[in-house]
Amino acid sequence: MKNKYLYIETFGCQMNVHDSEQMAALLTDSGYKQTDNMKLADLILFNTCSIREKAAHKVYSELGRLGKFKEQNPDLIIGVGGCLAQHLGTKFHKRVRHLDFVFGTHNIHRLPEMVASLQKKREKITNVDFHKSLNSIGIYATPGNGSISAFVTIMQGCNNFCAYCVVPYLRGPEMSRQPEEIISEITRLAADGIKEVTLLGQNVNSYGKTLGNGLNFAALIRKIGKLSGIERIRFTTSHPRDLSEELINCFAEEEKLCKHIHLPVQSGSNRVLALMNRGYTVEEYIKKVDNLRKVCSLISITSDIIVGFPGETQKDYQETIDMMEKIRFDSTFSFKYSERKGTAAEKLEGKIEDGEKQRRLKQLQALQDMHTLEKNTELEGSWQELLIEGKSKNSESELMGRASSWKIVNFKGNPELVGKLVDVKITKAYLHSLRGKLIEEVGNVN
Ligand code: SAH
Ligand code: SF4
Ligand code: F3S
């Protein structure tokens, strides 16, 4: 029988990246082989994102290009999943005529059934119901390509309803996975050669609340820390309001927990934070950062910031800049506020004009670049333990690894080191990466 090929394109966050891995795993079981070449594909899936208007536009424009593929190959099946699919439902079929099926964030497990039905009969399918089960997040999937780092979803959905955000509407209510299931998945990953796991959830700090068994996120980390084979634990994303002292202490006590936290602050103005419904003040946020640095002086702290939220005055914006000066993040993702239908912020007064948002963003990013380079430069001369991910992007003859801080380090080394933990000395800092030198004893042949 001729091989059937699957092409998946992923938009959006790490959660979507992992969802795509799960989609690929399920369809491999149904006889598909994954390809990087869209032209070869018998089945094309777009795993979509709707977080900002720009993200949605990108999906539309790339989907538009698929029409000609379908003309050339009428047997081609095209499906869309993820958050934009959840958002639009049947409307997606009206907007993009060449789609065969649309499935939402709770329906990944039904992919094989939808594809099998389309192979028999071409009738458009839409599956965007929410379910109380966690079927869609428990699918076993490794990243493939010999990678040694894997994602593990520990919870679904979000109950926070930050005023700007569509996620709670698109991923449903918060629900935690049973710890036994998480542990057994990670044990299996370790047996498959995985050394680093990243625990995924929209708000991992509230892990366990829906389980009612007293087990919280810090306790889950301690359990995972005991599993043999797993060398490193990461997690994303943490909500500052729910960051407990117990979890902060894990950074000192749990050796395998990487010294990095992504802690989105969003704004430095208490007035804006309240409008955003974030549930903390700048002072509370700074206190948590201080405590993190107290227990773990080397911890790298990264964040997300939104500029131009409705009603954000020049003074509010300046408070964000002041907060950044005070904290000095290792790096930040920053965004212009993007209005999303159905969110609380849509109804707020005082929308900021795009040119002004752009100006604020540019200034903020220039400041962050300065801080990032400063923070990276502080590491020159230090020793860093790296998990080697593969060849360097810049040079075939070099390797790339990540420090515990999540920072990228390039260095000369033997390709046999891929997948291993090694120590390097940092020789030079740049804005987006570091350069390192290996010590001879760990097998450098250069
Ligand atoms: N649950 C995670 C991730 C949310 S999405 C968290 O709470 O951190 C990632 C980032 O996108 C958010 O932290 C926020 O900074 C940004 N974002 C979300 N909605 C947005 C919007 N409508 N406009 C601009 N940025 C937005
Ligand atoms: Fe969105 Fe807020 Fe939930 Fe994050 S915590 S997904 S920003 S509602
Ligand atoms: Fe986008 Fe959904 Fe992630 S909206 S950022 S793909 S949770």
Can you describe what's shown?
This protein is α/β, with parallel strands linked by helices and 446 residues long. The protein folds into 3 domains: 124 residues, Methylthiotransferase, N-terminal domain (Rossmann fold); 229 residues, Alpha-Beta Horseshoe (pyruvate-formate lyase- activating enzyme); 60 residues, Beta Barrel (OB fold (Dihydrolipoamide Acetyltransferase, E2P)). It is built from 14 helices and 19 strands. The strands form 5 sheets. It has a 6-stranded parallel beta sheet, sandwiched between helices. A 5-stranded mixed β-barrel has the order 15-16-17-19-18. Helix 13 runs parallel beside helix 14. It starts with a strand and ends in an 8-residue tail after the last strand. The C terminus is likely disordered. The site of S-adenosyl-L-homocysteine has 17 residues, from strand 13.
Please give the structural blueprint.
Layout lengths: L3 E7 L3 H16 L2 E3 L8 E6 L4 H12 L2 H6 L4 E5 H7 L2 H5 L5 E3 L7 H10 L4 E3 L21 E5 L1 E2 L10 H5 L3 E2 L2 H13 L4 E5 L16 H9 L6 E5 L8 H9 L6 E3 L7 H6 L6 H14 L4 E8 L6 H14 L3 E6 L17 H25 L4 E9 L6 E6 L4 E5 L8 E9 L4 E5 L8
Parallel strand pairs: 1-2, 1-3, 3-4, 4-5, 5-6, 7-10, 10-11, 12-13, 13-14, 17-19
Antiparallel strand pairs: 8-9, 15-16, 15-18, 16-17, 18-19
Helix pairs in contact: 10-12, 13-14
This protein binds S-adenosyl-L-homocysteine, iron/sulfur cluster (SF4) and FE3-S4 cluster.
Iron/sulfur cluster binds next to helix 7.
